[in-house]
Amino acid sequence: MYWSQMNTALFTIGVDAWWMDATSPRSSRPIHQYQLAVTTNQTHMNPTALGSGSRMLNAYALVNSQAVYEGQRAAAPNQRVFMLTRNGFAGMQRYAASTWSGESHRPGRR
């Protein structure tokens, strides 16, 4: 379903590189409460098929990249895939994903 929506709305009209901005665990809490939110999330997702929630917390980026890669390759087998992701996980490079560190903070700028 995920690739299907991207394919219909974007790939079919020529978009063929992806900025995957939502590939990191998300917390709706203020930054000072983030650690508590992570701990709560880890507690609620134990166990997973691959191990503890704390060990696999960032794996979403891997399967997200896999879905896009495999979907695009199925739709256009001879076309390269490229995506930029905010979050990384071991093995993502096999799905043509490159990780960027997010926004850079410069003192004095908001």
Condensed summary:
The protein is mainly alpha-helical.
Could you characterize the architecture of this molecule?
It is a single chain. The chain is mostly helical and 110 residues long. It is 35% helix and 8% strand. The protein has helices at residues 2-9, 34-44, 53-56, 60-75, and strands at residues 18-20, 83-85, 97-99. A three-stranded parallel β-sheet has the order 1-2-3, with no helix packed on it. The mean pLDDT is 79.
Spell out the blueprint of helices and strands:
Blueprint: H1 2-9, E1 18-20, H2 34-44, H3 53-56, H4 60-75, E2 83-85, E3 97-99
Parallel strand pairs: 1-2, 2-3
Largest sheet, if any? 3 strands, parallel
Name the poorly predicted regions.
none
Distance between the termini: 37 Å
Query: Count the helices. How many?
Result: 4
Radius of gyration: 16 Å
Please identify the structural class as seen in this structure.
Answer: mainly alpha
Structure keywords:
single chain; 110 residues; mainly alpha; three-stranded parallel beta sheet; 4 helices; 3 strands
